[in-house]
Amino acid sequence: MPKVKVNGIHLYYELHGPKEAEVLVLSNGILMSTASWVFQTVELSKQLRLLLYDCRGMWQSDHPPGPYSMEQHADDLAGLLDALGIPKAHIGGISYGGEISITFALRYPDRTLSLIIADAVSRVDPWLQAVVESWIAAARTKDPKVLFNATVPWNFSPKFIQEHPDLMAQALERYALLDYDALIKLCESFLKLNVKERLKDIKVPTCIIVGEHDLLKGRRYAEEIAQNIPGAEFHIIPKAGHATCWEDPQAFNSIVLGFLARLRQKATTSP
Question: What is the pTM of this model?
Answer without folding.
Answer: 0.97
